[in-house]
Amino acid sequence: MHAHNLTEVVLVVAFALVGGLALLRVKQPPIIGYILAGIILGPSCFGLVTDRASVSNLAELGVLMLLFSIGMELNLRVFKRIWLLAVSAVVLQLGLSCGVFYLCHNLFNLPLAPTLMFACIFALSSTAVAVKMLESIGELRTTSGKIILSILIGQDLALIPIIILLRSVASDVSIVAFWSKMIGCVGILGMLLYTFGKAKRVHLPITTFLTSGDSSLLPLASLVWCFGCASIAGLLGLSAAYGAFLAGLIIGNSRDRKDMLHVIDPIQSILLMVFFLSVGLLLDLKYVWDHLLMILGFLILLTIGKTSLNTLIMRFLQQPWPRAVLAGLILSQIGEFSFVLATVGLESHIIDEDGQKLIIALTVLSLFLSPFWVEAARRLHAKAPEPFTGLQQLIDTLYGKEWERMCALWKWLKRCSLGIVHLFKRKPKS
Asked: Residue 232 in contact with residue 244, Cβ under 8 Å?
């Protein structure tokens, strides 16, 4: 390996580690730190990483591992208990999002396929960020937390039919071929839900067969199982992502889950780090700056719109207001699956490179904004009985302490910079 390439690898790992640790210290998901590290290292900032092709190849493996790991984490027995509520919420999310975007399609004469893709991206939320936020506020094990997790599981299960739908719309396949794939995918998911949603975990001889009883081969067996199922699904014309997701779903709801999860976790962490780092590398800051007002407008509409829409859906499903508002806040961001859908859209020629840049920019900013949005809403709710006399009082209530710290830091930096400038301007003594 050339010294230059080795230096890039060391920089990537070091920045990712620092970014992940920094975000964990402030009780935020480390994936945001990985994205931030990618932005810093990427061509939009310091340009320290130039071999983006190699990172992109690893990122594709990271996408499969992301779906594999999400499948392993999904507890179908918990989902089965409140599946009707979760499925109803997901159907309403997708249906109302598609309805709103279809109205925009008619009003502004927008192309149908990109409009449908943006509607699906708008409906889906980030499982990783939502789980971390539920943990930080102590709601993960409560009834509200379990309902929100079930909705996220429903969204994850809906991803594969969405991918099939988008590819079918883009390629103008026949109605028979489209419904054959859709019914096949939904049928397989339904069969797995029925089989693995039972009280006892099903025993599968997968690990024994692939390792012959040697536990040292478990990491390799896990990768063979994940990428093997992904390859088979791709050859059948479904989707490699669908195969990886099913592979994780099967293992995660069997007796082999504990052993597999133990050995796959380090590999998964590395590949997921590469995936989210590559997202940061792909973020084009020049594009964001050139279209700043448009992106900020979309971001505000997205955040407020998703919060309001999810809150109203939960109220429509007869959930109490506190639970409905909490669900609306937690599900307010667009998630990591938007990158997967953006890749599908680019490959299927649904969107161009500018469309991909817009999706990446909105998703990254949405992931960054989401924890602050939830915290602001919590503080506002705590002070709700008190009347606000002006905008300044509202800002002080939401982020008064943080604003004072930022002002103090700015004054300190300003003094330091003035001191340095004064030092360099001093004439040397003769």
From this structure: no
- Distance CA(91)–CA(364), nearest Å, equals 25
- For 16-38, write each residue's pLDDT tens digit: 888 888 877 766 778 788 888 88
> pLDDT tens-digit profile of 95-106?
999 998 989 888
Burial class (CB in 10 A: 0-12, 13-18, 19+), 355: middle
DSSP 17: H
Q: What whole-number distance in Å separates Cα of residue 43 and Cα of residue 46?
A: 6
Cα distances (angstroms) measured from residue 222 to each of 14, 176, 218, 235? 27, 35, 6, 20
Residue 172 gets the label, from left (phi > 0), alpha (psi -120 to 50) or beta, of: left
pTM: 0.77
> What are the Cα distances from residue 348, in Å, to 112, 239, 362, 376?
14, 13, 21, 39
Question: In angstroms, how far is CA 155 from the centroid of its own chain?
Answer: 12
Q: Cα(399)–Cα(379) distance, rounded to whole angstroms?
A: 9
> What pLDDT is attached to residue 312?
92
At residue 385, φ and ψ (nearest 5 deg) are -65, -20
Which of 92, 94, 143 lies closest to 120, judged by CA?
Answer: 94
Dig out the tokens for 43 from the structure.
């061509």
Q: How far apart are CA 79 and CA 220, in angstroms?
A: 30
One DSSP character per residue, 308-334 reads HHHHHHHHHTT--HHHHHHHHHHT-S-
Domain 52-264+286-370 sits in CATH at 1.20.1530.20
Residues sharing a CB contact under 8 Å with residue 383, sequence separation 6 or more, in sequence order? 397
Structure tokens at 102: 């279809």
**Inter-helix orientation angle 257-282/353-382, to 10°:** 110
